[in-house]
Specification:
The chain is α/β, with parallel strands linked by helices. It is built from 13 helices and 14 strands. It has 2 domains: 204 residues, Rossmann fold (3-Layer(aba) Sandwich), CATH 3.40.50; 82 residues, UDP-galactose 4-epimerase, domain 1 (Alpha-Beta Complex), CATH 3.90.25.10. The protein binds nicotinamide-adenine-dinucleotide.
């Protein structure tokens, strides 16, 4: 089987590629199949992966001709991760619409014209929610996104559901909580601080926190994120039913609780490097996202769960610094 990962050079895309290569096979429509080819599409150069099953393609996910070339009837599973992150989509409206929405539709159209109904795993986000949220946010709670990124993700989810209903693809829109701790440098996601306030102090650097200590976040570790994407691809379509959008499991913690966990794992020196500097732009975007949601369906479907945020920090110390 051939697998395509769009955004394959990114943070989750690369980790997902490594996980798939290590597994060697994936359960899809025709049962468990060996992964013969893994195509990584990204508009930036992917760090090389020394594996003959990998083909890295540098290109634009919004390029219809390129998608036409890359997706063929051997493509059993597509992980559609390529995206412009929340802060950038808010700052650059046209870019966000082109990559997060238009390219997603183009990818689905390409699949439709192949007529072989591949599994498409789409990475959606907490950002699809917003406005006055009920106490318990469920998979089917009305989506009222309050950011361009959230709107683009929500529309792409609807399209995925419709292309699934029509039998063009077998879609799974997985709503990821904010992934923390993300290694490397800060990015343009509004939630970038959710990793920065742990990652930077662990490196001995100061980290600015743009929201208050009582801000509640809904988080997921990189390992649980990747395991969830794989699990989402392998799930039987019948188990998913008609609603293909799923709220994945997460950890509900306040920023203050995150900093306390940092203290328990790395000591008070690390805590002293976190400095609260309010940023209204970030507060506005992140403050509208749910700090938790109901995960009954994800748990029943066997998606992985977390233990504690202390363990998430330990995961970062162990294998997250790549
Ligand atoms: N990391 C999180 O906290 C989080 C939370 C919820 C949802 N998500 C979603 O998960 C997915 C992966 O996130 P990530 O954290 O790995 O982000 P990332 O920014 O590291 O990866 C996205 C990749 O998409 C690529 N890309 C952007 N524009 C492109 C284009 N025009 N053509 C080809 N490639 C392009 C980027 O180069 C990047 O490598 C995204 O869809 C994101 O919206 C992430």
């Amino acid at each position: 089987m051939k697998i395509l990962i769009t955004g394959g050079a990114g943070f989750l895309g690369r980790r997902l590629a490594l996980a798939l290569l290590a597994r060697g096979s994936l359960a899809a429509a025709n049962g468990v199949e060996a992964i013969d080819k893994l195509v990584l599409l990204d508009h930036v150069e992917a760090a090389p992966l020394d594996d003959e099953r990998v083909e890295s393609v540098k290109g634009d996910v919004a390029d219809a001709d390129l998608l036409d070339e890359l997706i063929d009837t051997d493509t059993g599973v597509i992980f559609h991760l390529a995206a412009v992150v929340s802060g950038q989509a808010e700052a650059e409206f046209d870019l966000g619409m082109r990559i997060n929405l238009d390219a997603s539709r183009r990818l689905l159209e390409t699949c439709r014209h192949r007529s072989h109904c591949p599994r498409v795993v789409f990475t959606s986000s907490v950002a699809v929610y917003g406005g006055a949220l009920p106490d318990v946010v469920r998979d089917d709670t009305a989506l009222e996104p309050r950011s361009s990124y959230g709107v683009e993700k929500a529309i792409a989810e609807l399209l995925l559901g419709e292309y699934t209903r029509r039998g063009f693809v077998d879609g799974r829109a997985l709503r990821l909580p904010t992934v923390s701790v993300r290694p490397g440098r800060p990015n343009q996601a509004a939630s970038s601080f959710a990793s920065g306030i742990i990652r930077e102090p662990l490196k001995g650097e100061r980290a600015a926190c743009p929201v208050d200590a009582d801000t509640r976040l809904w988080l997921m570790s990189p390992r649980v994120a990747v395991d969830s994407l794989v699990h989402g691809a392998e799930l039987d379509a019948a188990a998913l039913g008609a609603n293909r959008s799923l709220n994945l499991s997460g950890l509900s913690v306040t920023v203050g609780e995150m900093v306390a966990a940092l203290g328990r794992v790395a000591g008070e020196d690390a805590v002293s490097r976190v400095v609260f500097e309010a940023d209204e732009r970030v507060r506005r975007i992140v403050g509208g996202w749910p700090g938790a949601w109901d995960t009954t369906r994800a748990v029943a479907l066997g998606f992985p769960e977390h233990t504690s945020f202390d363990d998430v920090i330990r995961e970062h110390l162990r294998d997250g610094r790549a």
